[in-house]
Amino acid sequence: MKEKVREAALTGFVALDRRLPAAEAAKALLRKAFPDHWSFLLGELALYSFAVLVLTGSYLTLFFDPGMTQGVYAGPYEPLRGLRMSQAYLSTLDLSFEVRGGLLIRQVHHWAALVFVAAIAVHMLRVFFTGAFRRPREVNWIVGLTLFVLALLEGFAGYSLPDDLLSGTGMRTANTIVMSIPVVGTYLSSFVWRGPFPGHVILPRLYVVHVLFVPGVLIALITAHLILVVYLKHTHWAERGRTNRNAVGMPMFPQFVTKSTGLFLMIFGLLTALGGLAQVNPVWAYGPYRADQVATDAQPDWYVGFLEGALRVMPPWETVLWGHTFMWNVLIPAVILPGLLFTGLYLYPFLEKWIAGDRSEHHLADRPRNQAARTALGVAGIVFYAVLLAAGGNDVIAYSFRVSVNTLTWIFRVAVVLGPVLAFWVTRRICLALQAHDRRLLAEGHESGNVEQDVQGGLDEGHKALSAGQSYRLMVREVPRPLTAPRGELPRRQRLRLALSSWYYGDRVEVPVTPEQRRAIEERTAAPVEPEEPDAAAGAEPAGRGS
C-alpha cells in the first residue's frame, strides 16, 4: 500500500513538473543564499513576532466584543463590581479573569506587538546605517517603511480597543489631533467618530481596522517584501570572497531553515514567558473610560510616545483666521512634524543618490564609520526621538525627582533643538576618528605589546601586520567623492547639489593603498553585470539583478 502511495505521489509530481518548473524553482529556492550575520536576524524577529500576533489575536477575537453600549459589571473583580462600562471593557475584563488562559494570551499579544514594532524600527536602522536602501533596493525601503507606519497604526488601534481610562485618554488625544487639521478637521472628526467625541461607533470601526484591514495590508506587504529580498538578494559585509557582484551566505536548506526555526521557537518561548511573568497593560487598574475623567500618569506605548512628548514641549500657540482656529500647539507637533519626518524617510534613498550622483547598484554593506554624514544624521534622528519620548513623561519625571514641570519642559524644549545638532557633530567627529584609526592600523598594524629599543637607545612599541582578512575589511569600501563643479555659470539647483555633496562627502580619511590595491578595490566594488549561471559552490550566487 505504501509503495502505491509513493508511486502515485511521484507520478503526480512528475506530471506537475512537466507543466510547471516546480523542480527547478524548488532547487533554486533551496540553494538560495541567506545572510549569516546576526544583524540580519532583526527582520526575522519582526516576522516571527507578527506570526505570534496573528496566532494570539485570532484567539482573542473569539471572546472580545468591541461594542460601546453600556452595561454593569458583575464579574469576579471586586473593585469594579457595580460600575457601568462599555461592552469592550467588560469583555476585556472577562478575557482577563474568566476565560481560561485569556490573560496569558492578552499579555503575550501585547508583548508581541511591542517587540514587532521595535524589531521593525531596529531593522530599519540597520538598513539605514549600512546603506542597504541604495539601488536596487529603494522600493524595498519604501515597503519596509510603510510596514512600520502600518505597525504604528495597528498598535494604536489595538491599544485603544479595551476602552479603559488610559486608552480612552489616548483616544481623546487622537480626536484633538484630528480636530486640529485646519478647515476639514471638524468634518473629519465627525466622520470618524460619527458625531461629537466620544461617539458610539469608533471602537467597532477600530476593531475592523485592527483585525481586518491593516493585517491584510501587512500580510500583503510582508509577502512583497520577502519576494523582493529573494529577488534582489541580500547585502553583505566586505570580507574575502564577498564583492559587489555576488551574494554569499548559508544555503536555505538545511542551515538557514534550522537556525530560523530555532529563532522562531525562541521568540515564541520568550514572548510566552513575558506574558506569564511580566505584567503589561493591567486595564482593571485603570477603570472604565469616562469622558469627564483623565487618567494621571498616562503614558502611551513607546512607539507613539514621541508624539506625546512633542505635544508637551510645544508652546501654546493658536491663531484665529477667517473664523478658523489654527491650533499650532497640536497641528505642528502631531501632524506636520510626523508628516515631514516620514516624508524625509521615504525620499532619503533618492536624495542621497542625487547628492552622490551615484546610479550604480550596491550589494556591499557600508560600515557606518565610513559614511560619517549619514551615520551622524541617523544618530541625530535617534536623539531627537529620545528627547521627545522622555518629554512625554515629564510629569512622571518631575514627580519622581521633585523638580518643577515647567522647568523640565523648558529643558526638553532646549534639548530637542540642541540635542540633535550636538549629536550630529559628535557622531561625525567619532566616525572620522575611527576612519583615522583604521588608516593607522593599515599603515602600522596592531600593537604587539613588545617594546623594542633601537641602536640609538630609542624605545618603540612593536607592531604586527594585519591579516589579509582584516586588511580586506578595512580597505574595501564604497565612499563616493564630492561632485566636481563644471566650468561656467551653474543653475541654483546644481549649486545646491554641489554644496550638499561637498558637505556630505568632503570630510573623509583616505586609506593608504598602493595602485595595485586600488585597482583590486575598484574591481571588487564594481557594479554587478548581467547575472550568469549560479556558482557551483553552495551558499553563493550572483548578486541581485543586472545593472
Structure, described:
It is built from 18 helices and ten strands. The chain is globular and about 95 Å long. 32% of the residues are buried. It is mainly alpha-helical. A hairpin with a 5-residue loop joins strand 8 (446-453) and strand 9 (459-464). Helix 6 (138-160) packs antiparallel against helix 12 (328-356). The chain has a two-stranded antiparallel sheet. The longest helix is centred in the C-terminal third of the chain and has 40 residues, at 405-444. It is 61% helix and 7% strand. Its cofactor is heme. It comes from Streptosporangium nondiastaticum.
Brief sketch in words of this structure:
With 547 residues, this protein is mostly helical.
Main β-sheet, in a few words? 2 strands, antiparallel
Radius of gyration: 28 Å
Count the strands?
Answer: 10
DSSP strand (E) fraction? 5-15%
Question: Helix amount, in percent?
Answer: 55-70%
SSE series: HHEHEEHHHHHHEEHHEEHHHHEEHHHE
Determine the N-to-C terminus distance. Answer: 54 Å
Q: Count up the helices.
A: 18
Strand order of the largest sheet: 1-5
- Mean pLDDT figure: 88
Judged by helices, strands and strand pairing, the structural class is mainly alpha
Globally, the shape reads globular
Uncertain spans? 531-538
